[in-house]
């Protein structure tokens, strides 16, 4: 009750471990007997997750990596694990950039550098990615840096909210769609 009155979010999980539902507590109102009646909102994707077709990825190693990162992302959504979702999205972004950039650079190239290269390709109209995908993957990068590093979480004064992490899943669906990996 005190957390809600201070504007802090609350959550609870129902169901079995493999098929659970996460709910956000929106408010708490007293009933005539002075008991708390919670107003709830489900925390989930509005349309679920698609099944990507990674066969368009020519490099078999990158294809396997992308498939594994997508499976990890799916499991993170099911388990309501925001940190794992952000990690999977960042890793999936790296695999997609490595495959679809015209010149991704050396194997140790990080997400920041590859996104810089993507911006240059988009400026020259020489990319399979869309501008929207670029901005979504930048969001993944920022979320990954600010939610995965304890110092930045402390500086922000709060942990990653599950609902916010779900927006990353929606963003990755758009990135896959722009590459024609999802119909």
3D architecture notes:
By secondary structure, the chain is an alpha+beta fold. It is 54% helix and 14% strand. It contains 7 helices and 3 strands, in the order H-E-E-E-H-H-H-H-H-H. The chain has helices spanning 2-5, 60-79, 82-100, 111-123, 131-148, 150-156, 162-178, and strands at 10-16, 19-30, 36-42. A 3-stranded antiparallel sheet has the order 1-2-3, with no helix packed on it. A hairpin with a 5-residue loop joins strand 2 (19-30) and strand 3. Helix 4 (111-123) packs antiparallel against helix 5 (131-148) and helix 5 runs antiparallel to helix 7 (162-178). It is elongated. The mean pLDDT is 84.
Summarize the entry for a quick read:
The protein is an alpha+beta fold. Helix content is 54%, strand content 14%.
Spell out the key features of this protein.
7 helices, single chain, 3 strands, elongated, three-stranded antiparallel beta sheet, alpha+beta, 183 residues
**Beta-strand content bin:** 5-15%
State the secondary-structure class.
alpha+beta
Number of helical stretches of at least 4 residues: 7
| Secondary-structure element string | HEEEHHHHHH
Number of strands: 3
**N- to C-terminal distance:** 44 Å
Largest sheet: 3 strands, antiparallel
Widest beta sheet: strand line-up: 1-2-3
Q: Measured on Cα atoms, how large is the radius of gyration?
A: 19 Å
Could you say which overall geometry the principal axes of the C-alpha atoms support? elongated
Topology:
Elements: H1 2-5, E1 10-16, E2 19-30, E3 36-42, H2 60-79, H3 82-100, H4 111-123, H5 131-148, H6 150-156, H7 162-178
Antiparallel strand pairs: 1-2, 2-3
Helix pairs in contact: 2-3, 3-4, 3-5, 3-7, 4-5, 5-6, 5-7
């Amino acid at each position: 009750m005190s957390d809600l009155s201070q504007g802090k979010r609350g959550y609870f999980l129902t169901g079995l471990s493999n098929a659970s539902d996460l709910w956000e507590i929106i408010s708490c109102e007293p009933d005539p007997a002075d008991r708390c009646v919670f107003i709830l909102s489900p925390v989930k994707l509005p349309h679920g997750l698609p099944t990507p077709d990674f066969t368009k990825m020519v490099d078999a190693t990158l294809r396997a990596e992308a498939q594994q990162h997508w499976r990890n992302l799916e499991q993170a959504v099911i388990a309501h694990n925001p940190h794992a979702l952000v990690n999977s999205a960042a890793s999936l972004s790296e695999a997609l950039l490595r495959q679809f950039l015209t010149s991704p650079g050396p194997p140790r190239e990080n997400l920041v550098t590859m996104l810089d290269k993507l911006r240059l390709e988009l400026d020259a109209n020489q990319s399979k990615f869309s501008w929207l995908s670029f901005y979504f993957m930048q969001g993944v990068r920022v979320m990954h840096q600010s939610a995965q590093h304890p110092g930045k979480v402390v500086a922000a004064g709060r942990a990653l909210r599950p609902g916010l992490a779900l927006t990353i899943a929606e963003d990755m669906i758009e990135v896959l769609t722009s590459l024609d990996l999802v119909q």
